[in-house]
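Example record

The entry below shows one chain as it appears in the dataset: sequence first, then structure tokens.
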Amino acid sequence: MTLGPVVVDAMGGDRAPAAIVEGAARAVREGVPVLLVGDEAIVGPLIPKDVVLPLAHASEVVGMGESPSTAVRRKTDSSIRVAARALAEGKGSSLVSCGNTGAVMAAALVEMGRVQGVIRPAITTVVPRTDGGQLVILDLGANVDCKPVHLGQFAVMGHVLARDLMGIAEPRVAILSNGEEDGKGNEQVRSAIPVLESMPIPFIGQIEPTDAFHGGCEVLVCDGFVGNVMLKSVEATVEIAGKLLKEEILRRPSAKLGAWLLTGAFRRYRKRTASAAIGGAHLLGVNGVVVVGHGRADGEAVASAIRQAHLSASERLAERIGSAVSETLGGDSPE
């Protein structure tokens, strides 16, 4: 079966629409079909002549600083609402937006709905561990304040993603905390442990960030506030480490020679740690494949997010996650 295009919100992100169009064009040249959504007068002139890149008009934009729920409700012709509507109507296979994260979730819920049994969708991504494995982290910003039942459902969705899409037979699930000992963690973490223990997943308890990134678990659960701050801290640390290393290399001629000999290693390091390599984060729990790109995404990162969305659609991510989660959680969605 031929997949429909990846629907891309051309107006979302700090570098929109230029970086979005650039990334979309890259993806199209690689054979990934794309449908752009945005203001025709602004986006149209940016589309390269050598690619087939259809554009659906949207007259409004949800800004990065706007209240997501209010803006999405009032701006029915915003690019993110039109994009989500196109996916819900079967005009595309998946959705990518680098815009306001809350607006992406609100638009997806309004136009597409949620998986049966899911109370709140969660933003999740997969990052490399130091032992060569991969770590699924959720939530990364969709839900700043969470109840224990929300964290329990995040654990189930993360477990299904790691098991069914990543091929890990028994992915271990842990909750992020400031220590592994009993009594550690804030009230939210301690209250969530009985809920997580009741879920049909291999829950191993509390874990510190260092142990998680060293291979202590395959799925790391936290609320959206903590997850978002942690991810941004990791990004900042990688950036700072790179800048400090560059300064030290430029300080002495002998260091420059050593750096030249390690050019290949540095190139691979940048490739593995750049946000463009990850592409974006999945919004799990909605009825469709939705990838949320980084707000500062450049053309390369946008293209990576589009590839990721296209691959997830081809792997039937939404259907597989939906059926597995609904089977596990049932049809009830108690708040």
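Notes for this example: The CA atoms of residues 230 and 236 lie 10 Å apart. DSSP finds 14 helices and eleven strands in the chain.
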